[in-house]
Structures are given as C-alpha cells and as structure tokens.
Structure of Helix-turn-helix transcriptional regulator:
Amino acid sequence: MAGADEAGGASARPRRADAVRNQQTLLAAAAAVFVDSGVDAPIREIAKRAGVGMGTIYRHFPTRADLVVAVYRHQVEACAEAGPALLAEEESPFTALERWVDLFVDFLVTKHGLADALRSDSGGFEALHAYFLDRLVPVCGQLLDAAVGAGEAGPGVEPYELMRGVGNLCVGRDDDPRYDPRRLVELLLRGLRP
C-alpha cells in the first residue's frame, strides 16, 4: 500500500504543477477582464478569455469574492516580482520605475472593486491591504532609490507617498470614461525628474 501511495504521490505532482499553471492563466485572464470591465464582469467573459469552462472557474473559486481576492493576490505578487526584473532588464532605473508604475496602475484599476466584492468581510479587506503594503512599498522603494542613485529622479519622495499619489489619480476611472489616469500618472512621474 505504501508503494501505491508513493506512486500516486509521484504521479500527482506533475498534475499539480499543471493545475498551478492553469490557475495562474485563469487569474491573469480574470485580471485582464477586471481591468477592461470591472470586477462585476460576467464569469463567462473570464472563462472565454482564459479558454476554460465556467465550471473550472467555479471549481477553483466558488464565489466572486474568492476570485477577486485571488486576482488581487496574484497581481500583488506580479507587481512585487516585476520590480527587480525591470531593474535588471532596463538600461535606465527611471524607465524601470515608469514600467512598474504602469503595472501598478493596472493593478489599482482592478483593485477598485475589491471593497465592494468583500463587503461582508472588512477584516479580510484590511488583511489584504496590509499584505499589499508589505509586498509593494519595498519594491517601489528599491525602484525609487535606483532612479535617485542614477541621478534620474530627485531625492525626498517616499515610496508610500508615490504609491498613494498614483492611487489617488486612479480613483474615479470607473465613474468617468473620459478620465484616463495614465496621463496624469505620467505627469506625476515627470515631476520626479531632477
């Protein structure tokens, strides 16, 4: 029996890796749909973009709140991992910062409906916000420090301050289709230049 369990465990690992990849694909598709259509977008739209059936989504995420929270965490991790990668691949630390802020704006647009999706769980929302700050403020700080160190940004701006400013510019995007926060975020970033 132990041998059967070991064999089952060994054969289950590749399926688990595939399942994780499939879930990541699903979360990326859901994030893209949320950016385009908001967190209330139909599940069938997410399923279509991910190339899966609606049952697959409900099997992984029984409620919309479960899906929104998973997308939120997925995007926090993607933003956190992107910072060092952008610094390594871009010739200019300021360009890395600009590209990271662009990813951050996508994340913020998706995050906008999070509070509504978690209406009944304010403690859960607060825990997610703390997770967001713990993961992203240091990444933003690393990018800012690199830009300042290269003489591409002036000193004195705190990472939280920059993230909060970008966040404030993103508020209201849902309410007014004529408003494009990216234009104002670009102006904000220009203001960091020495």
The chain is about 75% helix and 0% strand.
